Amino acid sequence: MSNNGHLSGSFYFNGDIACAEGAISAGCRFFAGYPITPATEIAERMSERLPEIGGVYIQMEDELASMAAILGAAWGGKKSMTSTSGPGFSLMMENLGLGYMTETPCVVVNVQRAGPSTGLPTLVAQADMMQARWGAHGCYSAIALCPSSPQEMYDYTIKAFNLSEKYRVPVLLMADEAVGHMSEKVTITPPEKLKLVTRRKPTVSPDKFNPYQPDADLVPPMANAGEGYGFHVTGLTHDERGYPVMTPQAQEKLVRRLVDKIDKNRDDIIEVEEWDTDDAEVVVVSYGISARIVRYAVELARKEGIKAGMLKLITVWPFAESTIKRLAPRLKSFIVVEINAGQIVLEVERCAAGQTKTVLLPGMGGAVHHPDVILEAIRKAAK
Amino acid sequence: MTIEIANTKVIDQYIRQDRMPHIWCPGCGIGTVLHALIRSLVKGGYDMDKVAMVSGIGCTARAAGYVKMDSFHTTHGRALPFATGLKLANPDLKVILFSGDGDLVSIGGNHFIHAARRNMDITVICVNNFNYGMTGGQMGPTTPTGARTSTSRSGNYEPSFSIPALAAASGAVYVARWTCLHLRQLENSISEALTRKGFSLVEAISPCPTVYGRLNKQPTGLDQMKYYQTASSVENGADPMKVGIELNGKITCGKFVDIERPSYLEMAGFDKETR
Q1: What is d(CA A80, CA B88) in angstroms, rounded to the nearest whole number?
Q2: For residues A282-303, average pLDDT
């Protein structure tokens, strides 16, 4: 282990543990959580690892408190994270909203399980994807990443921290039970090869500092508590001084920027992977664990001579509109594979805008799709 | 270190003058309590750059927006877990929670008992006016049985929480109660609470003439202060389990708990580490 607390080399890790290690590599030194299947292993790992590297683990009384605590810790100057699953994610929505409004960098991991309610605690689903986009009340734009393997749990946890620090926004790592609990080889990035982003600090003296005055990228520099800036932070609609202003004009200015700082930087934020889309007639869109099964099904289809391709959404929010718009006119069909009753399919359909068909392969949760089901859908769509 | 306060200008410099006038009603006690807190901080010689105030939602919580220090106006009931994260991320900060009664022990009740149980290193100042003032005077868990509010027009039939009892039972190391009439004692108790390691609580009984007093035959701040004058008694060391407040009943004031037990930072070993 290096002095920064990084492991070195490759390990046989499950996705949850890989996520915890990714957080540590990213510089996370505060974790607040509450036990919940199938995310508990992240908290367990953090409880063991953080104290040995000068970090803080605290087990809170519930997920409301966990989310509030990581916001407080972020303002105390730490990179902070919590992890949960469906029921806990629902409880976090209130303070997640505070995070969006106060532009607090932090990472929230949701290892998705089947719901609604208690549902199937130990089994997979991808049904919180719209909650990730719209779950907190009010207008805002969200960033959500979907890892497909333990290695990606490690890599995209680091990316989640980087995006949260860069854009001053809570970033959601929308994993799933299958990825969280599968064990595979995970290679730790050596510290010297890590590209880490840290929040931009104020460049003006405290008397000239306006905590919500944005730079050109629409993101305001951030002072931490205790640094002498004497700033005020509120969940109320506020002006650039951070003071509450109860007018539609202030609301328009602030909330427009909260939306724009993500949407106008979407090219920098969005990451997707495409396979065999160049000549494809059918493109299967998927994310998370489902993307791995789609990959196999697309390979089988290619062996049959079908011009199939695949689009894997790593960044699900903001949505990869331009990719869908580019592909749509030359396709016979999109197929969307997701373990829910149809969530991201709505975005694909919207962006395809009638230029091609969009077929949904849904799943109510508890199991991943069988590759044969996807292959059959590809065959049908290619006819 | 004790600093004498010669005039109010000393206090004024810790108030955001560009946010005045404040939203509090005439006769309200929140400003009185905030004044006592700032006097305690000034007298204690605290480095204000290292003091942070956290609040939730409600009339009292608006104080965070008026003080000139790092201040956080968070979500309803969640100020304590937010403050917990802030304190643990930077233990050099003196973290003060300024909260109303509903915010603290109704919606935030679970967080309150657990912060006290952990003996988290936070000083809580609770302004208790027996109702939800900001939303127009609804009953809450501190509303005395029989009191009339906008959601208990014929009289509240629920039993009420005693905040000192709740704090003491949950593990707070310092618990005191005063009313807005007991200015000096309130200030002294806040000063003491600020020096204690772990979870300290000072409750300040406050007038809310506009929405609570008017429905309970005390329509002005002065009426409520007169009630405090006749009904309150100082009983330092009183059993916190026996200081509940009944409608128009006795108000027991004083310091009820002042004990030592390891604070969260001490137990976690954070106080020893060089950070």
Answers
A1: 11
A2: 98
